[in-house]
Design brief:
Layout (H helix, E strand, L loop, with lengths): L13 H7 L8 H15 L5 H9 L4 H4 L3 H5 L5 H13 L3 H9 L9 H12 L5 H10 L3 H8 L6 H26 L5 H27 L4 H8 L9 H6 L12 H6 L1
Helix pairs in contact: 1-3, 3-6, 8-9, 10-11, 11-12
Length: about 260
């Protein structure tokens, strides 16, 4: 027959309450104390801090108890609250650590960067800081895209995701078309060359955009000076495949050249 939690004199039976407590959970101290507080409150509304302290101490193993030995030897006026604070700090995880553990292996995969960002925000919840979300998002991006995004002067995370989307859009179609052009004969070195070329083009475009932002009055002059009338501009496909190219990406002078 279970022992009464309140004896005939109205005193709390600490031993009976302690028996209802599970052994202390080092892996999740916050959840353990939530359950303990529920048990204490249902046992007696006026249960003292000393009684809760004694009941909790009885459920600690040696490795945990030695971290609070000073509280056992010299109990403060509110021993349970101090013990709870001590053990939560010793074994608990911060919100940042929990989110990192949850998302540390998340990668972009075949998602668009903006969709990847939305997924991280959904999993992280409302308590994660913008800086933490940005760190986790950048960590999951491929290195080439991460380098371009990290070099951007944009601070807004949503706009950064849009920049990353544009980088993905600039690379992916060209790679797919190139694979169709070459078929089974495509070499790894050829694909790497294309990726490098596209990366350089994106970087050059980014530099041009920054230059235009610094000197907006020179915008017209800048574009007029890029393509002198006596200079032929060929796209990647006509440069590589000449008249066998099946695709053309503007700007490209091959059509007019072929017609001459």
């Amino acid at each position: 027959m279970p022992k009464k939690q309140i004896n005939e004199e109205g005193e709390v039976n600490t031993f009976a309450i302690a028996q209802r407590l599970p052994p202390f959970w080092k892996m999740d101290p916050e959840l353990w104390f939530l359950q303990a507080d529920t048990i204490f409150n249902t046992a007696s509304k006026g249960i003292s801090s000393k009684c809760k302290f004694d009941a909790t101490i009885s459920r600690l193993d040696y490795d945990v108890l030695k971290l609070a030995s000073d509280l056992v030897k010299w109990p403060p006026s509110n021993p349970y609250e101090e013990l709870k604070k001590r053990l939560t700090a010793a074994f608990g995880e911060s919100e940042s650590q929990r989110i990192h553990k949850l998302l540390e292996d998340k990668q972009l995969g075949d998602q668009r960067p903006s969709h990847f960002l939305s997924e991280i925000k959904r999993l992280a919840g409302t308590l994660a800081s913008e800086e933490l979300i940005k760190s986790l998002w950048l960590k999951g991006l491929p290195e080439r895209i991460k380098d371009i995004v990290a070099a951007s002067a944009e601070d807004d995370l949503e706009k950064l995701a849009q920049v990353a989307d544009r980088v993905i859009d600039a690379k992916t179609p060209a790679l797919q078309i190139y694979a169709q052009e070459c078929g089974a004969s495509a070499k790894t070195t050829d694909i790497e060359e294309l990726v490098q070329r596209l990366t350089e083009e994106v970087a050059a475009l980014k530099t041009e955009m920054r230059s235009r932002q610094r000197s907006p009055e020179r915008r017209g002059k800048f574009y007029r000076s890029r393509s002198p009338s006596n200079e032929r501009v060929l796209c990647f496909y006509h440069q590589r495949f000449k008249n066998k190219a099946k695709h053309c990406v503007p700007p490209c002078d091959w059509t007019s050249r072929a017609g001459n």
